[in-house]
Amino acid sequence: MSHYLRFLGVHGFVLATVAGIALGGAWMWLGVAAIYGVMIAGDELIGDDFSEPAYAHPRLLDATLYLAPPLLALLCFVMAWHAGSGDLFGAGAGVQATLGVDPCAARAAHGPLHWLGGILSAGLTFAAVGTNIGHELTHRTTDRGAMLAGRWLLALTFDAEFAIEHVYGHHRRLATPADPATARRGEQFYAFLARSVVGQTRSACELERGRLETLGLGTWTLHNRYLGGWLMSAAIVAAFGLAAGLAGVAVFVLAGLAGRSVLEAVNYFEHYGLVRDPDAPIEPRHSWNSNKALSNAVLFNLARHSHHHAAGDAKFWQLRAYRDAPTLPYGYLTSMLLVYVAPGWYRDRMTPLVLEWDRRHADATERRLAAAANRASGLPSLQLAAQGQ
Amino acid sequence: MFGKLFTRSASGRATVHVEPFGWTFEVEAGQTILQAALARGLPWPSRCRVGSCTTCRCCLLAGDVRTLTDASYVLSREQLANRVILACQSQPRGSVRVHLDRAAATLRRDADPSAAAADASVPAA
Ligand code: FES
Fold first, then answer.
1. Range of the structural domain that residue A245 is part of
2. Interface list for B 27-86 with A (CB within 8 A)
3. How many Cβ contacts (< 8 angstroms) between chains A and B?
């Protein structure tokens, strides 16, 4: 039973973010504090989980994914209510009548610093729940319902195009210089962030243009999924504008961008510095893996990334541990925090692991590619190693 | 009369025949052609296994498949018209016959015109 229940944990974080914003004031930081605090401490204390349980009722697991859209809609509603000035749908009066607390008083207490916490909490929640579950769902390309739900979830972070680029671009070009979402050796997070966002946008456009040409469909039509994705995001922005004016738009857009940066932080450490011969099959060694129990429970086994890339069609509950795959030094939220606040330090922390990858995991071709990457990295420690490679 | 030949057997399995090698293997319900081939140790070329690199492409000569991803992102109009499919994204609906490997395809070109079409539609990687 606990094997099933653990995948509900992430929704607790959505509720924490919703409650924090609703309570107002310093509570607005609750979401971000709870997610980082619980996850970092939990991954340290609980450690790894290598189990690969067989699930007799995978439909139950799927149902937990579909809790995301209504819960995130609730989060958006609470954000809009608190950013606006009226009583949207009479929700404030309703809350006061049933719970006896006055949401208007909470709203009056919000300062800019409080909102900073609210926006970071919402952004992190959009990513951890929206992007993460959107990723799982948009891999299910035959399931129209999953694709639609997944693209709306991704639209919260202005990234519905992920459904195109990730599957048809990133999974093909993984760990090669042609992949915008693979961080190069020596590249710092913030440089990667800019390159990755621009590169993925370009790639999604090109892929979509190619598809429309192949099928003989026009660019400026509703068949264009790239444009369709932006229309979804625009619709959410418009809804915030209608509900809460400019303040609502600002709060949502900032939270969405914060969420998008979370995806890139994760992209950064999932593939940092790994190389592959573009003509060779994708193997577990071409992603950084983690079996941290809490990271995997909360993120629907996303941290079992080695298997995900080696078998992109596997559902999240089928992902295997791959103990021998190259392993990240920390859990997902710990890695994220380090990538954000100490990007140079994190990059240097990876140097010995990358060199160990060259020795232990790389094949002959990859060793040559790795030596070239080390020379081009601009990092003296990697360049020195390249001399012996 | 072909209907019978190409329907799924009662066990939910389907048979795949691979030209020009003469391989024949069963695909379980829910499995892709590539998964079944690799499970039998056949050297079917593949890289990404999510329908993006097109390494596993082959030509559908007979029968029908359920396609998992949108191949129009990665295959050309000619390839689609010539029934080129991605083995990693295709689940047979009943028994199918496919043609793999453009180099070896020349062996069959004279004998089987549809194989020649497959060859022409698959540019060298
Ligand atoms: S293995 Fe890449 S498309 Fe099938």
1. 2-387
2. 32, 46-53, 55, 66-70, 72-77, 80
3. 62
CATH number of domain containing B50: 3.10.20.30
Give CA B45 to chain center in angstroms.
12
Number of domains present in the structure of chain B: 1
pTM: 0.88
Provide the 8-state DSSP code for B109: T
DSSP β-ladder status, B14-19 and B90-99? parallel
Residue showing tokens 């149902």: A63
Q: What is the ipTM of this complex?
A: 0.77
Structure tokens, B66: 């359920």
Closest by Cα among A111, A126, A121, A128 to A10: A128
Is B79 part of any domain? yes
Q: Which of B49, B55, B57, B80 to mutate to test the interface with A (most CBs of A within 10 A)?
A: B49
Domain that holds residue B91: 13-105
pLDDT tens digits, A189-220? 999 999 999 999 999 999 999 999 999 998 89
Reference A116, options A314, A250, A234, A4; nearest CA is: A250
State how far the Cα of A167 lies from the Cα of A188, in Å rounded to an integer.
25
- Residue B53: inside a domain: yes
Q: In what order do the strands lie in the sheet with B23-27?
A: B23-27, B14-19, B90-99, B57-67, B84-86
Q: Please indicate whether residue B56, judged by its CB atom, sits closer than 6 Å to ligand 1.
A: yes
* B65 domain residue, yes or no: yes
Q: Is B52 in the pocket of ligand 1 (CB under 6 A)?
A: yes
Residues of B in contact with A213 (CB under 8 A): 77
